[in-house]
Design goal:
alpha/beta; Rossmann fold; 34% helix; membrane; Small_GTP-bd; P-loop_NTPase; lipoprotein; GTP binding
Length: 206
């Protein structure tokens, strides 16, 4: 089956410590907008955006932006369950945020779909003067863990589109074309609807 004229939908989840800029990254990607002051996400927020990989192939991400506060941690499996891909975000100015990101990666690799595509994003490169985590340190960890890796800035839009485009290119489009209703063929819209039917989207602050 050809991929010509195909649109593929994937469920994507964002994880990371509070205040690392997850919501700002998604808002920059979806709306090309940045708010200097944002209220913390409660539960999770839902957004969607498409990327055209070429004239014939479009990827649609249905994105769950999860809250980073510790009190919401128990809700995270509701949002990464069935996810095809994930962005785990840390703040390059906060050493502890990379430790938290590593724990999220470990959890995804243990509990999420074994084929999930995970990207590590070191956010806030606009605060270079306050950098606490060297690029090399994070890159070496990402390589060891088999992750995509980008340093980004939601404020300046640095590498934001590139991050999501790299994820889209990593998704198994040919496999889905050959087996559209197989294990990875259940698209993101189907998964989100199933989650709602099971009551797992309660608490979403969309």
């Amino acid at each position: 089956m050809s991929t010509q004229g195909k649109t593929y939908q994937f469920k994507l989840v964002l994880l990371g410590e509070s205040a690392v800029g997850k919501s700002s990254l998604v808002t920059r990607f979806v709306k090309d907008h940045f708010d200097e002051y944002r209220e913390s996400t409660i539960g999770a927020a839902f957004l969607a955006q498409t990327i055209s990989l070429d004239d014939n192939t479009t990827v649609k991400f249905e994105i769950w932006d999860t809250a980073g506060q510790e009190r919401y941690k128990s809700l995270a499996p509701m949002y990464y369950r069935g996810a095809n891909c994930a962005v785990v975000v840390y703040d390059i100015t906060q050493t502890s945020s990379l430790d938290k990101a590593k724990s999220w990666v470990d959890e995804l690799q243990r509990q999420a779909d074994p084929d999930i595509v995970i990207a590590l994003a070191g956010n806030k490169t606009d605060l270079e003067a306050r950098r606490a985590i060297e690029t090399k340190t994070a890159q070496e960890y990402a390589d060891e863990a088999g992750l995509l890796f980008f340093e980004t800035s939601a404020k300046t839009a640095h590498n934001v589109t590139e991050l999501f485009t790299a994820i889209a290119k990593r998704m198994p489009l040919e496999q889905l074309a050959n087996n559209p209703r197989g294990r990875r063929g259940l698209n993101a819209r189907d998964q989100v609807d199933l989650d709602r039917a099971n009551g797992t989207s309660d608490g979403c602050a969309c």
